[in-house]
Write a structure and sequence with these properties.
This protein is α/β, with parallel strands linked by helices. It is built from ten helices and ten strands. Helices cover 49% and strands 12% of the residues. It is elongated and about 140 Å long. Mean pLDDT is 80; it is low at 13-18 and 107-112. This is Signal peptide peptidase SppA. Keywords: Hydrolase, Membrane, Protease, Serine protease, Transmembrane, Transmembrane helix. It comes from Vreelandella piezotolerans.
Length: 371
């Protein structure tokens, strides 16, 4: 007896009453579902799918709207931040201007009262000599005249620590010193600290006496012009240079054009003539104290000790030693006109920016300046 027959007997069924074909269709057994009911179920299912799709589309639209609103709000916040930043900057500038004005009107000290007793007057010539630098002719000449007109001043000291600079500014200071020196009222002494070269030595040579430390750098009696030639560079880059002038030599120093021999010869004559002016003024200031060494005017820089042997300086000493020799103590009064605090800050910022960018701020193409 087979296993199926035994199961049928246990359940009280006759073995022959079971349809053998039904053994594999147990999941299809049951009452038949009407066709209309099937179609209704399918319709309900499709409607559910459509509703789900619409819901998903609605949620996607809401999400897109949220993103758009978030972007708009972010842009508005960023715009408000920039507006606030620029307003604060404007407010800061207004406050700085107001503070500077109030300082000048109420807090700035007047010209320092000079002592009645005899004293040494100090004029500082520090840094590059240029019209837009602290060591400019107008400021130094103003200090010189103030010191010269004070009856209590025993001697005027030009305290020099400068590599030189503008020929015009140097010549202006030189001419004024020579004018005062010819009056013979009081001595003018140039004291060179670390460096007194080129235009700075031009100024010093007008003094009655030049004093320097043994390790100071002195001299550099020469003229320099420096430029670049970019004509091959722009040719490699495929750049076309367009320059229009009225006058055939107006752009003769254009760095993007080759330097013509006639132009170079002409420009060298300008430098040579300026150098001769420099030499003539140094000779007029120093007189017979200069040695006959031809290298003096070659542009070389000497130490203070070497300069003494060449007649470029008269004595090796410090500012304190000069003060003790003149007034008996190492003290002096500074007659250099003060720089405006706001102007000083602006100058320092401009100089720092120029150094970072590698740009020279001097407007003079020709310089009495040590390199």
């Amino acid at each position: 007896m087979s296993d199926d027959q035994r199961r049928d007997e246990r359940h009280g069924e006759a073995p022959s009453s079971r349809d053998p074909s039904s053994e594999h269709d147990r999941w299809t057994q049951g009452p038949e579902v009407p066709a209309q009911q099937k179609r209704a179920a399918q319709t309900d299912h499709q409607e559910d799918d459509a509703e789900t799709l619409r819901e998903r589309q609605r949620l996607a639209q809401l999400e897109m709207m949220d993103r758009w609103i978030g972007g708009v709000l972010t842009e508005q916040r960023r715009s408000r931040r920039w507006k606030l930043f620029f307003r604060l900057m404007l407010l800061a500038l207004v406050l700085i201007s107001l503070t500077t004005t109030l300082y000048r009107v109420f807090l700035a000290e007047p010209t320092a009262a000079v002592p009645a007793q005899q004293h040494l007057a100090l004029i500082e010539v520090h840094g590059v000599i240029a019209s837009d630098a602290p060591a400019n002719a107008e400021r130094i000449i103003q200090g010189l005249n103030r010191a010269w007109d004070n009856a209590g001043v025993v001697a005027v000291v030009l305290h020099i620590d400068s590599p030189g600079g503008s020929p015009v500014q140097s010549q202006r200071i030189y001419t004024e010193i020579m004018r005062l020196r010819e009056q013979g009222d009081k001595p003018i002494i140039a004291v060179i600290e670390d460096i007194g070269a080129s235009g700075a030595y031009y100024v010093a040579s007008a003094a009655d006496e030049i004093v320097a430390s043994p390790a100071s750098l002195v001299g550099s009696i020469g003229v320099i012009y420096a430029g670049f030639g970019f004509q091959e560079a722009i040719a490699e880059l495929g750049v076309e240079r367009r320059v229009m002038t009225a006058g055939e030599n107006k752009a003769f120093l254009d760095p993007f054009q080759p330097l013509d021999e006639d132009v170079a010869r002409f420009w060298q004559s300008v430098l040579t003539q300026t150098h001769e002016q420099f030499i003539g003024d140094v000779r007029a200031g120093r007189g017979e104290r200069l040695s006959d060494n031809p290298d003096i005017f070659s542009g070389l820089v000497w130490s203070g000790e070497q300069a003494l042997g060449l007649g470029l300086v008269d004595e090796l000493a410090s500012l304190e030693q000069v003060a003790r020799a003149q007034v008996g103590e190492a003290s002096w009064e500074n007659y250099t006109p003060r720089l405006d605090p706001f102007e000083r800050l602006t100058r320092r910022f401009t100089q720092a920016a120029a150094e970072v960018l590698g740009v020279h701020t001097s407007h003079a193409p020709i310089k009495f300046q040590a390199q």
